[in-house]
Amino acid sequence: MSNQHFHVEREGDEVTLQVQVPREAIAAKGRDLLELARARLTIPGFRSGRAPDHLVLRYYGEEEFARDLKEELIEEWLGRALAELGLDPVTTPRVETTAFQRDEQLAFRARFAVLPEVAVPDELPIEVPEPPPAAVTEDELQGVLQELRRDAAVLEPKAGPAGEGDVVRLQRGGREWEGEATASRPIGRQLLGVQPGSEVTLVDEEGHAEPFSVTGVYQLLLPGPEETARHYGHPSWEAFVEAVRTRMVEIAEAQRRRTWRLAALDAAAEALSVEVPPSLLAEAVAEEAQELGIPASERPKLEEAVRRKLRREILASRLAEAKGLLPTREEVEKLASAVGREPDAIRAGIVIERAADWILAHARRSG
Predict the structure, then answer these.
(1) CATH: 3.40.50.10750, 3.10.50.30, 3.40.350.10, 3.30.70.1350. Which one for 154-221?
(2) C-alpha distances in angstroms, 207 versus 35, 59, 201, 293?
(3) What pTM did the predictor assign?
(4) Which of 93, 140, 276, 362 has the most CB within a 10 Å radius?
């Protein structure tokens, strides 16, 4: 694809866009920059905005002017080319200047990825087995109830060493932490026996050691069942237990539904041969690795997880576009305001859910 100023080459989902900025546009942008500089700079012997071009350039700096001119032209003409050609990069465009003379010419190329096209049929020849109904075991319920009792407990300072179940407060570098002294966890075992005012060095599972000051040791005074229920606003222990059980089932059902939806997206992406553009995958993996501090040895595992996530998002986006499932701006803004989250995250979540539900409605069932 090409026109007088733009030329596009596409290999799969990787795009190379070449832009030739017309000479008159370079001249116009140069005049604009000079006028802005003329108004901003104070040049001895001239009233504000009255200095000649050659002095404005001297005070601006020839190299700085050329650099700013080129950067502003690239930003403007890249945006113009993307809009005119209907291109929507999903990676950061990598821009390379191929020719530049300040008053004569500017040519550059930008490389980026776009979402692959996905043809979604009206029926999908896939099976997505339905997970078993959500359930909460008695052990799970009792575990949560015990945690809630602990959260409602009163902390009583201890003068002696930390024993099983005691809370230990730690300080390092002006920050404070709380830990539970318990033989059931690696860090908790290291807190057993520590005393207020002492120093302790804690070693995590990866072998990193950090020194802490022990600022306090506390015994948990657990409330009784009825007192716990009242603490959480329930009239009786039985009512509290039932409310906790109901909430746990709701959470388990939401997780079951999420697992089923993701399985549907994975199955459909595989059946429709959805692939992630290589540059998009590389960029996303690099960002995740840096943000999470993942070492090079863990990159293959991370890459597979990111690839699976991106395949789901690509399929969901294309399917929602094709089947009219995209949410309106009003829908997104209303929900974002209600739950206090960013609109982009809300929109992405809606698209994933609607696309997955469409797949489940148009796929073979087994269960």
Answers:
(1) 3.10.50.30
(2) 61, 57, 12, 16
(3) 0.75
(4) 276
